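User: Just a sanity check before I run the rest of the batch. Below are the structure tokens for the first item. I only need the designed sequence back.
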């Protein structure tokens, strides 16, 4: 999704801005641009496509200026082309923007009536002209305060001014924005990845705040334009995670990193000496929680759905789950004894954040399961359970999914044990089994060759289905999501028992159907559903776990066997072949695996 970088320095900034924009590429975008200030002019360059196209189309080495802003755009208002790319400029103001201005149509009409000319189809351009207009009658701080009050919707902004060549203004409402501090220069960035190669000293703006960034000084203001003090945070350095190493794609690297994701999670949360789960500083009394609501989007929502089965199996809590974009607009019955858990890799997803904000405003108990611990969702939740899987750069979530489900499994075990819902012996056995998981994942990752050859068949078809029951149903949904987002093949995930109620009509000769049938309580039922699709011509890829018992059908097209383990842990292993299937299908089709079309890593608009 859109990304912002701004640099105010004592030396030329265009090369550093390009570098930082490349760091933001993982977010997914369709055009890019830069504006610098030099010799009393705004120098604006922008291009459709990747940052590479910007470099090809313009002589950026000769783009002068010690101050500048850059942007990668993920189109919301107006097609992705060079005119709609950011920055947008008037004769004296240039703006980059993440978010959506909801009242742009009304503002535009008003500004046109005042003689302003618009070049693009974007909502962003109204901000440029509003500031230009407000600067006619007010000093900088007042003009910014006034402009921000006129805007409805969400934004993170970077703004430079022809007549004030020593400063950048940053402002935030709804979309994240950070300030970074360096030697003889300071920065603005829409996330810490953009800034990490330059500094580890960061201040996050809160909603409604703005800042003025100069090379040797940064000032912060609240929504009334009053100066405020903000803390400087130090970020951990994990530079190796930003490198693909020997892998062709970040996604391939992140899939292979999963044993480590689980090892780190276990190290953080399992107390080996006492054979216990350690969740330090849990802020609530266990008897004050009688129900749980889990909320997320996309893959994170699938984590919530899977964990519902664990929470119901291991605790006597009432459990509900919700898609964040639905939750935020429903008439919710908020209950004091409910724990609201927000699951997000980035911690910046606009819908998930809005759902959290709603719960906070209703004074609910809020807990974040996030990967980026400096994120808005982490900062604004009462309690945080970090995933600790390191930066996930590939747009399709892989290791973060395994990290999320690990934390949710650990939490369900701990709450089950504290409430007396599971026996001590069973609790300790499950902890013991959990410690074997990294090795089991390592072995499952070795299924590579089988999946590579199977993936060719998927590329020749119009559509596919993924079926599972119980714990395997959310994994079927996740497998279908991975395949569609990476290889653009239509894929539907269904509870296997639901096929007769409609979807069976889609089955035709040769259609690939992935059936997840581990040898758990649902095995026999799922195998019956599998026979029904085989009888109608489907080519079934059965994914199950190793067992001495033979598989029951002769007409299965292909079988993949993951390692055997206790039923609770099978979803971790079943996920791996599905991630690889999606990866190899996209690879064979030659698609941009780390940046699939139309998608973004961090969805900061609703
Ligand atoms: C799919 C994927 C998305 C994200 C979703 C939520 O592979 O990555 O569906 O899971 O956009 O993102 P986070 O977890 O950052 O809130």
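Assistant: Here's the designed sequence for the first item:
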């Amino acid at each position: 999704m859109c990304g912002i970088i701004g640099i105010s320095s004592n030396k030329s900034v265009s090369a550093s801005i390009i570098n930082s924009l490349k760091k933001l590429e993982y977010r997914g975008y369709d055009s890019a641009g830069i504006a610098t200030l030099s010799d009393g002019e705004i120098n604006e360059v922008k291009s459709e496509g990747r940052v590479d196209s910007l470099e090809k189309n313009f002589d950026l080495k000769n783009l002068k200026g010690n101050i500048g802003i850059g942007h990668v755009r993920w189109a919301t208002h107006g097609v992705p082309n060079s005119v709609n790319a950011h920055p947008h400029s008037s004769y004296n103001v240039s703006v980059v923007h993440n978010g959506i201005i909801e009242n742009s149509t009304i503002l535009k009409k008003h500004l046109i009536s005042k003689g302003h000319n618009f070049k693009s189809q974007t909502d962003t351009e109204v901000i440029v002209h509003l500031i230009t207009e407000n600067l006619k009658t007010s000093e900088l701080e007042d003009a910014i305060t006034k402009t921000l009050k006129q805007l409805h919707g969400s934004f993170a902004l970077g703004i430079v001014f022809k007549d004030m060549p020593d400063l950048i203004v940053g402002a935030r409402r709804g979309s994240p924005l950070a300030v970074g501090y360096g030697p003889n220069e300071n920065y603005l960035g829409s996330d810490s990845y953009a800034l990490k190669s330059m500094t580890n000293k960061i201040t996050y703006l809160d909603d409604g705040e703005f800042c003025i960034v100069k090379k040797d000084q940064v000032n912060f203001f609240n929504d009334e334009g009053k100066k405020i003090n903000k803390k400087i945070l130090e970020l951990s350095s994990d530079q190796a995670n930003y490198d693909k190493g020997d892998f062709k794609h970040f996604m391939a690297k992140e899939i292979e990193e999963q044993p480590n994701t689980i090892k780190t999670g276990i190290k953080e949360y399992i107390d080996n000496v006492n054979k216990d789960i350690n969740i330090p500083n849990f802020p609530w009394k266990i008897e004050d929680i009688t129900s749980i609501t889990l909320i997320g989007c996309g893959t994170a929502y699938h984590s919530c759905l899977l964990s519902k089965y664990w929470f119901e199996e291991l605790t006597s809590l009432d459990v509900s789950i919700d898609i964040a974009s639905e939750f935020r607009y429903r008439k919710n019955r908020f209950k004091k004894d409910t724990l609201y858990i927000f699951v997000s890799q980035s911690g910046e997803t606009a819908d998930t954040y809005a759902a959290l904000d709603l719960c906070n405003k209703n004074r609910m108990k809020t807990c974040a399961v996030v990967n980026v611990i400096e994120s808005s969702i982490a900062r604004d939740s009462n309690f945080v359970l970090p995933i600790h899987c390191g930066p996930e750069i590939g747009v399709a979530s892989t290791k973060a999914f395994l990290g999320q489900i690990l934390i949710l499994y650990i939490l369900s075990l701990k709450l089950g044990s504290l409430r007396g819902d599971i026996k001590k012996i069973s609790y300790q056995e499950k902890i013991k089994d959990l410690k074997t998981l990294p090795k089991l994942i390592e072995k499952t990752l070795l299924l590579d060759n089988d999946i590579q050859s199977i993936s060719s068949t998927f590329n020749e078809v119009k559509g596919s289905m993924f079926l599972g029951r119980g714990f395997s149903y959310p994994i079927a949904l996740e497998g279908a999501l991975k395949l569609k987002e990476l290889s653009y093949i239509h894929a539907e995930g269904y509870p296997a028992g639901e096929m007769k109620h409609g979807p069976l009509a889609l089955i035709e000769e040769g259609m690939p159907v992935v059936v997840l049938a581990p040898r758990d309580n649902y095995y026999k039922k799922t195998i019956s559903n599998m026979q029904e699709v085989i009888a109608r011509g489907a080519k079934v890829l059965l994914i199950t776990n190793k067992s001495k018992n033979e598989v029951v059908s002769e007409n299965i097209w292909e079988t993949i066997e993951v390692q055997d383990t206790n039923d609770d842990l099978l979803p971790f292993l079943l996920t791996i072949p599905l991630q690889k299937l999606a990866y190899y299908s996209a690879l064979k089709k030659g698609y941009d695996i780390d940046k699939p079309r139309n998608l973004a890593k961090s969805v900061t608009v609703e």
